[in-house]
Amino acid sequence: MDFAALNAKMIEVKAAFPSETKVIIGAEGNIPYESLIQTMDAIRETFGKERKLLFSDVTLAAM
Amino acid sequence: MASSGDSAVRFSEEDRERMMFRRALSRKKRREREAAGEIRELNIVAMMDMMTIILVFLLKSYSASSVSVTASEEVRPPVSTTRSTPKDTVAVTITPKSILVGDKKVVELQNSAIPRSVLDGRRVIPLDQALRKEVDKLKYIAARNPSAPFNHELSVIGDRKIPYDLLLTVLYTAGQDELENYRFVVIQKEGEQGP
């Protein structure tokens, strides 16, 4: 899975809404926990050495 | 009387001579031994010094690692890049075979799904009861100790293979017990643990 692309997209969205910190993650029932954590990693902070917070308040959506 | 006094003086002079001779001899022997590289005696002061430093260091390192997370061979948390640190909260462990609150097993899973017999809608009855007990304990502490307030926090230690559906069911049950904020315990890429 291409988490770097997701991260790049989140940086774009963060640039458009700099004060927003909330994000809602929805997933299908059979998605493994590991993928959820990796997605959260890509959304919460920028990758690389210098970590900047993007959307740190994660809410999980229930289907 | 005078003669006896004389002899006493002579004796002491002889004694002194003999003692000086002995001392010189032992000093010579010691020098020889030192020259041969033999350790004369252990210097305990330096060792005590070292031990004290090590003791202080050990005590400090113990107090620094505030949270003990029960790791079992059944649960392998996912790897994450996060830098946050775990806190000491109610811990729910989800393995592919069972759900544990703290160290106690509360639900046995069947094919990594919760058996229908313990479900009430989405609420998992045994998990709910166990969490209720933990929350009551925390509230009891919070009511008497203002420095340890009840923070509605829950630590979830999940195996990397558990499905999202199971995770949400556990979180929903925890939500019924006023545990609304979650921390996911993961293995940090550097080898430490954090939510």
Low-confidence stretches of chain B: 1-5, 191-195
Rg of chain A, alpha carbons: 12 Å
Low-confidence parts of chain A lasting 5 or more residues at pLDDT below 50?
none
Number of helices of chain B: 4
Secondary-structure content class of chain B: alpha/beta
Structural class based on helices, strands and sheet pairing of chain A:
alpha+beta
DSSP strand tally of chain A: 2
| Portion of residues within helices of chain A | 40-55%
Helix tally of chain A equals 2
What would the principal axes of the Cα set say about the shape of chain A? globular
Largest sheet of chain A: 2 strands, parallel
Strand content of chain A: 5-15%
Approximately how much helix is present in the residues of chain B?
Answer: 40-55%
Spatial strand order of the main sheet of chain A = 1-2
Mean pLDDT of chain B: 79
Could you explain how this protein is built, in words?
The complex is a heterodimer of chains A (63) and B (195). Chain A has helices spanning 3-16, 33-44; strands spanning 22-25, 57-60. With 63 residues, chain A is α+β, with helices and mostly antiparallel strands. Chain A is globular and about 30 Å long. With 195 residues, chain B is of the alpha/beta class. In chain B, strands 1, 2, 3, 4, 7, 8 and 9 form a seven-stranded mixed sheet that branches. Chain B has a two-stranded antiparallel ribbon with strand order 5-6. In chain B, helix 3 packs across helix 4 (164-176). Chain B is elongated, with a radius of gyration of 35 Å. At the A-B interface, helix 2 of A face strand 1, helix 4 and strand 8 of B.
